[in-house]
Amino acid sequence: MLKLSITEMLMKIEREERFHAVATDYSFSIKIDKYVPFVCAAVHDGHHFQKQLWDNCMHTQYDRWYEEDPCTGEMISGLPITLIAHDSRFEYDLNRDPLEAIYETAWGKELWKKPLSRKQKDQAILKHNNFYRVVLSLIVKLEEMFGSTVFYDIHSYNWKRWDRKVPVFNLGTKNIDQDRFVHDIQQWKEILDKIELPIEQEINCGINDVFQGNGYFLKYVTSNSLNTLVLATEISKVYCDEETGVIYPDIVHAIKDQFKYYIQAHAHRFYERHERIV
After folding, report:
1. Which fold has domain 2-277?
2. Rounded to whole angstroms, how far apart are CA atoms 23 and 30?
3. 3-state secondary structure string across 171-233
4. Between the CA atoms of 188, 67, 196 and 30, what dihedral angle is there, to the nearest 10 degrees?
5. What's the superkingdom here (predicted)?
């Protein structure tokens, strides 16, 4: 894996070069094994948290891990184009607007013992902005090459905190063109309904059940593209023990193996349906 500046990443995308790189500040990584009309992203996978923030943070490492989306980067790692965040959302949240990306409180609890300095905030927002510079470059290049693309926006959520039965998968469609992409949405739901995992729970996919797809990543890609669909996909944390932090690698690998096959199959059908607009 290379270590590249944002400018170097943008140049490689413009030249349609294949590469696997981490940002020079280690905030995120990008992989392009092949230029295809689909991208997989894990914007809440990150757990990096600057040492200078440790003593000032009122949330423990476990508190932060609990609200992050561990292993989502691993789940998509077999796909040809990936964007994976490495910094914790507790420093800045890539799925929020830049003006709201730095938490003051998090899940009902004060986050900082004393307010962050202007320098700390500016550094965090710079990393947020740099990530989206790369996202925009990908959108432009892939639509230029293929005409229409689909982004798989992969997240996870804590299912035990709900006091009702919730689905293993959730698809948020509130902020996408549901009429235009109705077949693509339904096909992705049907795929998620039949994912096979070594768990006892019934596997099913809800639409706008626990989340509606209100994240900034989806909104940014949608508003900065002409013919791109974003599928905000949540998996409940059946692949770990939410209360202890233990990861179940057999379940993680089962998801990874099936995502590698099913995402490409779904993206292929998406492109066949929408390629007429190239």
Report:
1. Aminopeptidase (3.40.630)
2. 8
3. EECCCCCCCCCHHHHHHHHHHHHCCCCCCCCCCCEEECCCCCCCCHHHHHHHHCCCCEEEEEE
4. 60
5. Bacteria
* Number of helical (H) and strand (E) elements in the chain, helices listed first: 8, 11
The 3 state secondary structure assigned to 242-274 is CCCCCECHHHHHHHHHHHHHHHHHHHHHHHHHH
Reading the block at residue 127, the tokens are: 């990393």
- Comparing CA positions, the residue from 22, 31, 131 lying closest to residue 80 is 31
Q: Cα(first)–Cα(last) distance of the chain, in Å?
A: 33
Q: Is the pTM of this model over 0.90?
A: yes
pLDDT beneath 70, residues of the chain: 276-278
Q: Which two tokens stand for residue 11?
A: 């140049």
What is the rounded (10 degree) CA torsion for 253, 90, 243, 153?
Answer: -30
